[in-house]
Amino acid sequence: MLGTIEGIGAEASQKKELSLSEELTEALKIPSVKAENGMIECELCKKQCKSEEEMEIHKLKHATRDIPVYKFRCEYADCGQTFNNSMAFEGHINKHKG
Ligand SMILES: [Zn+2]
Ligand SMILES: [Zn+2]
Fold first, then answer.
1. How many whole angstroms from 70 Cα to the centroid of ligand 1?
2. Are residues 17 and 55 in the same domain?
């Protein structure tokens, strides 16, 4: 906790949906890494952006649900399962491939 939002968040004492601004703050915490090709890669969905600015805009889309928040999504029809780790995801895909 940064301790700087006391007083402002009085109404947040009740459990409720995150406000949009809180979601934006959360979204900006999404880790991004520098990819080998020099691009910046979103850890959540593996999208690559050319600049930090572009990545920030991309992260905000996660907050506004323009892009769902998960790392891996099965593209097979009628499946659409989501995974947060590549091992589980690859194992799952292999099942489809039989
Ligand atoms: Zn992303
Ligand atoms: Zn699947």
1. 8
2. yes
Where in the sequence is the domain holding 51, given as residue range(s)? 1-67
DSSP 9-73: TGGGGS--PPPHHHHHHHHHTS-EEE-TTS-EEETTT--EESSHHHHHHHHHHHHTTSS-S-SEE
pTM of the model: 0.49
Report the number of distinct structural domains present in the chain.
2
State which residues have CB under 5 angstroms from ligand 2, the bound ion.
Answer: 74, 76, 79, 81
Give 15-47 pLDDT, tens digit per residue: 566 676 777 787 788 889 999 999 999 887 788
Do residue 37 and residue 74 come from a single domain? no
The answer to whether residues 47 and 94 belong to one domain is: no
